[in-house]
């Protein structure tokens, strides 16, 4: 199949999922065309089956905000005609499904049918999409898609609750490529560069937005390090980072916390890690937790959104109510204090992650693509 993928090219979860999906599809022989405003951060153009087409938005003094949707829909039309693309897969309802629908209509006038699959990732529904300014456009875009998927049952339920949806929504969970796991690759984990012997290494990875509850991460670690020797690795960047650094100073633990900023070496960082913290206000799925588990790292998380569909209570880690810092810290210590217990949780985390291996999830998308193409035959 010739498949066009539209996504945000940033460090966020939806962009990572879209990129990894496209790369795996390419490895299986499909021709993949990424169409977005810059090259996705995890996209390596090393395959003859992978193509990237940049969406340029000309600047005109007339426009206060440049019309990206218009540029994207026009680019889609051009690329579909040039490369004979058979199906469009957009990640995020807005603006991508909206632009995709406009491209469909323009192509239809030229006798070309382009089926569109829309994948909902979370923020496009629960935060941005539910805003009164955007709600009608989001509802329209979802209902006009040929097929719609969501990354968790929780997100599907939220979508149906918040919008007047007439389309069916199929749950296809996010995935991980287990074979990329550094711990299984034979490459040694150099723990000594980050921690002393006997110290536990705890990690948090996110975009440092308020929804991630970064102060909770710091406070959970503060309680942990009072009981056992530990280091905290904070990976990512965003509006809450400066406040987090200041909180570490106030608590007197700045020498035990390392802020990395954004990184393309997540697997290497997780290779060093004993425990992952994700106390988010909400997560539509919890891809960061799954990435940790794929590296044999147990997870302490909130029980919000789709996290309970990924992190299995008492098996791959523990879940607590949002904001329950004390319980999260105690659960962390239950895992970390004893080597045998920690090793068991690490084994369990990897075992659960294997259920979400991309090789198990990819056929679900391939089947859906074929249904969408057959719809117009």
UniProtKB/TrEMBL annotation:
A GO biological-process term: bacillithiol biosynthetic process
Segments forming domain Glycosyltransferase subfamily 4-like N-terminal: 11-179
Pfam families xref list: Glyco_transf_4, Glycos_transf_1
Location of the Glycosyl transferase family domain: 195-349
Gene3D superfamilies associated with the record: Glycogen Phosphorylase B
GO molecular function: glycosyltransferase activity
NCBIfam families: thiol_BshA
PANTHER family hit by this protein: SULFOQUINOVOSYL TRANSFERASE SQD2
Full protein name: N-acetyl-alpha-D-glucosaminyl L-malate synthase BshA
């Amino acid at each position: 199949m010739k498949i066009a993928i539209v996504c945000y090219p940033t460090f966020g979860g939806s962009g990572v999922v879209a990129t990894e999906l496209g790369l795996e599809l390419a490895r299986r022989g499909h021709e993949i065309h990424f169409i977005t405003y810059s090259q996705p951060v995890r996209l390596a153009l090393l395959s003859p089956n992978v193509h990237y087409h940049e969406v340029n938005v000309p600047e005109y003094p007339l426009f206060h905000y440049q019309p990206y949707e218009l540029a994207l829909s026009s680019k889609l039309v051009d690329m579909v005609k040039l490369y004979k693309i058979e199906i469009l897969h957009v990640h995020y309802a807005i603006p991508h499904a909206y632009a995709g629908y406009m491209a469909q209509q323009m192509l239809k006038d030229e006798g070309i049918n382009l089926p569109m699959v829309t994948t909902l990732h979370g923020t496009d529904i629960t935060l941005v999409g539910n805003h009164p300014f955007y709600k009608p456009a989001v509802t329209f875009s979802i209902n006009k898609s040929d097929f719609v998927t969501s990354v968790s049952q929780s997100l599907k339920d939220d979508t149906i609750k918040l919008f007047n949806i007439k389309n069916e929504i199929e749950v296809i969970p996010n995935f991980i490529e287990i074979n990329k796991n550094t711990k299984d690759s034979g490459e040694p984990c150099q723990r000594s560069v980050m921690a002393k012997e006997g110290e536990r290494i705890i990690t948090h990875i996110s975009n440092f937005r308020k929804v991630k509850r970064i102060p909770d991460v710091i406070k959970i670690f503060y309680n942990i390090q009072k009981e056992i020797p530990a280091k905290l690795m904070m990976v990512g960047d965003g509006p809450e980072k400066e406040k987090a650094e200041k909180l570490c100073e106030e608590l007197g633990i700045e020498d035990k916390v390392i802020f990395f900023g954004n990184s393309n070496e997540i697997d290497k960082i997780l290779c060093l890690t004993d425990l992952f913290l994700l106390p988010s206000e909400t997560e539509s799925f919890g891809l960061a937790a799954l990435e940790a588990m794929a590296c044999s790292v147990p997870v302490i998380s909130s029980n919000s959104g789709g996290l309970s569909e990924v992190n299995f209570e008492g098996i791959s880690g523990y879940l607590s109510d949002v904001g329950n810092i004390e319980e999260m810290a105690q659960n962390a210590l239950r895992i970390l204090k004893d080597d045998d217990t920690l090793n068991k949780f690490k084994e369990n985390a990897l075992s659960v992650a294997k259920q979400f291996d991309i090789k198990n999830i990819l056929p679900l998308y391939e089947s859906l693509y074929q249904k969408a193409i057959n719809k117009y035959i």
